[in-house]
Every structure is written in C-alpha cells, then in structure tokens.
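Exam prep: given the inputs below (a chain plus iron/sulfur cluster), describe the expected output before reading on.
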Amino acid sequence: MTTRRIRRIFLEAGAEDYEMTRRILARLPGVPVEVIPHRDALKARDGETPAGWIPEAKSTLLLAVQKGPFWRPCPGTKDYICCGYQVLQVGLNCPLDCSYCVLQGYLNLPAITIFVNLEDLLGELAAGLDADPLKVWRLGTGEFGDSLALDDLTGLNEVLIPFFSPQPRAVLEIKSKWHRLEPLLSLGPNPQVIFAWSLNPPELIRAEERGAASLTARLEAAGRAAAAGFRLAFHFDPLIYFPGWEDAYRRTVEQLGAAVPAAAVAWISLGGLRFLPFMRQLLQQRFPASPIAAFEMVRALDGKLRYFKDLRIEMYGRMREWLKAAVPGAFLYLCMESPRVWQAVFGCQPRGEELGRLLDARVPPFIKEGL
Ligand code: SF4
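Solution:
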C-alpha cells in the first residue's frame, strides 16, 4: 500500500552501498531515482511554505546515511513530567498525513527520509546496551515517523525484533497507525517487543488521519500481535476535543477492551492535542475543513498551544475511568503533562525520574517498583 504511493526517489551520495538501499530500490521497480550529492540540495527554497511542499514530500523518498547518532533521549518538555523514553531516529517523516502532525513544523526536506545504514544502527544499539547492562531502556522508532508504514520497503523490523530478543532489560516499542504486520508475526513470541498503536475514534481517524488504517484494522492487528506473543501499548495522543467526544472516545475504549487481552498491555498513554502556535496557521492552510485548530487553546509554559487545564483534566479523568473498566490493570500515564494535572487526574504526581522507573518496571523481567 505505502509502496504504491512512492513516485520519486532521491539517493544521497554514499547511500548506494547499503543493503537496505538495494532492497528498497528492488521493491520499487520503475520509480525514478535521482542521485544527489547531499540532502541539502532538496531543502525548501526561500518563499516555499510547508503547505506547498508537504503533499509532494509524502510520495518522495530520500535514502540517506545517518551521520549523527540514531539513539537520542526524547527531549521531553521543560516543566512537564517526562518518562525517560529513548528515540531511535531511523528516518524522518512518514507516508501517512495526519492534520495535527507536529513533524510538519520541524522538517525542512520535501521527502520521507530513510536512513539506510542499518549496520551502524545495530552497532550503536549493541554498544549502548552493553555500556550499562543493568539499566532498563525503553526505545522506540515512532517519534519521527510511523514505525510500520514503511516496513514493506525497509524490512527494518524484521531485523530489529530478533535483535531485541536476547536483551532482558530493553524493550523496543513499534508505534504505528498502520495495520500490516504479517511478516513480523512469525518472529514472536518476543516479550522485549511492544507493538503500540495510536488510537482515536473512527470519525477523527477518517477526518484527520489521512492514509492511516481504520480503528478496526489497528485493533485487529493488535489482537494478532498479542496472539503471536508480543506485548501491546496504546497511545490516545493526541486526545482531541470535539462535540460528542465523550461518546466517541468511550466507544473507542470499549472497542479496545473487546479486541485485546488486558494482560498483554504494557502501558497506555494519554496526551491532549498540543502544537506550537505557528502550526495553527499551517493546519488551517493545509486542512481548511478541519475544525481542530479553531478550538480555543491557551499558550502553555512550554510555548505550545494546549486545551485549557480544566478541559484536559476532564478528558483525562473520563478516559481513565473508561480504561480502568475496559482494560483492567493496564498502566496508565500522561504524556508531557504538568504536575498539577497529574495530581488532579491521579491524586499523585511522579517526582524526578519516578514515571520512568514505573514504566521501566513494565519491562520484563518485571522489576518491582512502587511509587
Ligand atoms: S502517523 Fe505520526 S508521523 Fe505520520 S503523519 Fe501521522 S502523526 Fe505524523
């Protein structure tokens, strides 16, 4: 599916010697390939706005060598409680097209970048994990793109999943809005791998998450992953307010509870819609029919626009109630929220690195930790 969307490939000099490049080119016969000396040659020109080049970027690939580190700590947000997540930057951008995608405001290359030097990624991972064998690591590939949507081209997860099998204190989170994972199922059982889906009600998926799998398809994929022996996670992020949100999210949570075994769920996060102010205009330009940027928001301590605190607390509180009933025992947390909101929703607030430790305790062999 994603393969059929690719119309053009740029190959950065140096990337041609890698196995992943050969695999991707073989899987895209007939798609024009242009060799460029450096990715900067693609940078948006003065006067070009993201609204102009983003649509084309969604069908253009850039195969490049990651020269910086693949492994980076999630930057978190000052003044908000952080979970100590680790990001593997295996690419930048994504073939799906969510109206609220924050990457639209950060990326400046009109292409989906895939870093092809997989050997360097594995070397960096091995060295990082060996350097501190007692530390628990939660790593994910879904911060700068979708972890599954390009897998039919890259084959990345077929390499990463076995790599994580013998790592008792690390987990890989494969975070997605996509549903095709059949080639990966035979790689289970593997408790060191968590398949995670971002969820929203079907009406929001249809309106705001273009090209992404339906809610039903995501939940069916989650059920197949659990049956194959993988653990699961879910992210209601961004949680979006709209008239009728309560019914829509309650039904979505019920559908989740019916689709997957609660015991397989490692964690579930909640995060209200948020974006930097300039994104509001971009969102209105690209998606004039979308109402999500028009709702009243307030500039928060991190400079981002967020819903008013009372609304966030109400939405998180209701979600918590529904999730407790539908997915009993699942560990629930707030992504990038303030201590006051934590206190109002959970009656407590993790201090320092406490949230990270609580999530680490969900990593096999399930180290016992308390608040
Ligand atoms: S799936 Fe994620 S990375 Fe891709 S467009 Fe949607 S929000 Fe952005």
